[in-house]
Amino acid sequence: MNPIALEYFVKIAESGSISRTAIELGIDPSSMTRHIARLEADLKVRLFHRSGRGVMLTDAGTLLLTRAQAVSVALDQTRKLAVTLSDEGPSRLVIAAQPTLAQRSFAAVARTMRARFPDTRMHMVEALGHQLINWLVEGKIDVALLYVPSQTGVIEMDVLLQEPLYFVAPPDHVALGPTISVADALRKPLILPSTPHGLRELAESLAASCTMQLQIEVECDGSNAITKNLVQAGIGCTILPLATVTEEVEQGRLQAARLVSPVVTRDIAIATARNRPPVIGQWDILQSIRQVVVDQVTQGNWPGVVPHAAATLSS
Q1: Measured between alpha carbons, how far is 47 from 134 in angstroms, rounded to an integer?
Q2: Helices (H), 117-163
Q3: What is the rounded radius of gyration, in angstroms, for the C-alpha atoms of the chain?
């Protein structure tokens, strides 16, 4: 049972609203809803009655509340003690991200972490999503910024941002408009990773929904820079976030059109491992990184990305 979920349970019970509690804590409501659903599954009871006006405790929820409040108080006291004892932060902190996320966030994250924890030795890593999940579980990294994977059972995750995807073509390709349908994009020869995760998995899913076969011209498991070079050379087209190709598009070295019919987006989250103890100061670290990442978007430094839209909730 996750004690953080108990804290969320207490705060929701006291406020009577999942969405209001999420806003007060600066957490995506859908993430908070998942925490409560997991807690209910662990306890095998329903804790809240949901209605259009908010939530009310069930009988089981009422019985749990007093015990959960005691846990919440103890956790808060423990955090305050940890801050008092370890205000300098961990001796070493490993932060990892997928390539585009690293490109857009690492400089600002490193600057903030160095200012907040000057005695902490920082290690920053770039890797693919499935590697980051494995490394979190193995304890090789402490925090990851990644695109939300299809399987999330082994990681604790808060969704921060939403990013639309773009069809990217060579400069001599027939001129693209601002958007292109998924079906039209998938008819083109594509350059995609071979790994069945991430963009390749997404492209395969889109093709299946359109009852089409992908036309893979080249499989590229290198960096985004290599993929972009292949596209610029006219070898094929690809699918990437706008932030990855903004400079090349502005310089006329690539073309990009947003995928529509349907609109294709990916969610960006901050993640830690469920099976490992938190690093010293983890709460403060996560809050700081979360704020830095959102600031990068609001300041216009992350083209195409928006703060994650709150999921439609019944409370």
Answers
A1: 33
A2: 129-138
A3: 22
Position 69, amino acid: Q
pLDDT tens digits for range 106-162: 999 999 999 988 989 999 999 988 899 999 999 999 999 999 987 767 788 899 999
- 176 and 313 fall within a common domain: yes
Q: Supply the mean pLDDT for the chain.
A: 89
Residue-number span of the structural domain to which 46 is assigned: 3-85
Q: Are residues 99 and 78 in the same domain?
A: no
Type and span of the H or E element at 185: helix 182-186
Q: Band of the pLDDT at 312, cuts 50, 70, 90?
A: very low
State the pairing for strand pair 216-219/179-181: unpaired
DSSP-based three-state secondary structure for 215: coil
CATH number at residue 185: 3.40.190.290
The encoded tokens of residue 284 equal 């403060």
Q: Among 139, 133, 128, which residue's Cα sits nearest to residue 152?
A: 133
**List of long-range contacts for 23-27, beta carbons under 8 Å, 24+ apart:** 26/287, 26/290, 27/158
Closest to 158 measured CA to CA, from 138, 142, 143, 141 = 143
Q: How confident is the model at residue 313 (pLDDT cuts 50, 70, 90)?
A: very low
pLDDT of residue 315: 34
Q: Which stretch of 53-62, 200-209, 304-313 has the lowest confidence by average pLDDT? A: 304-313
Q: CB of 199 within 8 A of CB of 192?
A: yes
Is the same domain home to 281 and 212? yes
Report the first-to-last Cα separation within the chain, whole angstroms: 24
Q: What is the pTM of this model?
A: 0.69
Pairing of strands 155-169, 265-273: antiparallel
Q: Which amino acid is located at 88 in the chain?
A: E
